[in-house]
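Bench notes, afternoon.
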Amino acid sequence: MVSTEIHVLVVDDEPDLCNLTKDFLDLQGEMVVDTAFSAQGARNLLEYKRYDIILSDYKMPEESGIQFLASLRSEGNKIPFILFTCKERQDVIIEALNNGVSGYLQKGGNVVPQYKELEHLIRTLVRQSRDEEALRESETRFRDLAEMIPTAVFEIDLSGKLTFLNNFALDLFGYTPKDFADGIEAFDVLIPEDRERALGNMQEILQKNVTGSHPYCALKKDGTNFPIIITASIILRQGHPVGLRGVINPSQVVNP
């Protein structure tokens, strides 16, 4: 079962404010909150515990919240990070955005609405982060599986650019991984006479959200061609089409 708990790390050099934030979030249910009074103290906790989000003050001795954020991002750590501070200066906001901050909330004013806004921001960012992580894991599983099967597997985006080709597909068309990294247009692997029809079939799949299977004449990198059948279906992310995914099989059928 997927845990609904949200593990929060609050970082603030003022213990009273740090503990006030912890007390409020503890009362909201499903939030497990730890505190640290410096960036280094937060790092010590991060060494042995996984958190869903970090909430950090801006101005702290030795290392500011933005410096702490920048160091995490430089290490490849993508944990959602909220800067919670009294500072309202635009240069602080811009610096935080440039260093990959996930959210920004100003201290001060009416405490209850402020902390309610903080709670909502935490839940929103953690949900987005978990959705993105689940998508990355799903994409990784798909690619691992695609490399195991003896069939050409592909993905294209809405502009018609190939965004994935497994090794079987690269070999089938005579391309190298470097060719793919440099960019391959999907319709360039078909003879010119078939490209307009392929575009129309792609648009039909996207509009009707159906699986389409169509014969074409493929074009290898060396200029030779051979008959194929492409079967493709729509890729949806958050309910919106982002491209097509499918398989390519050599065929004995002569393209009409």
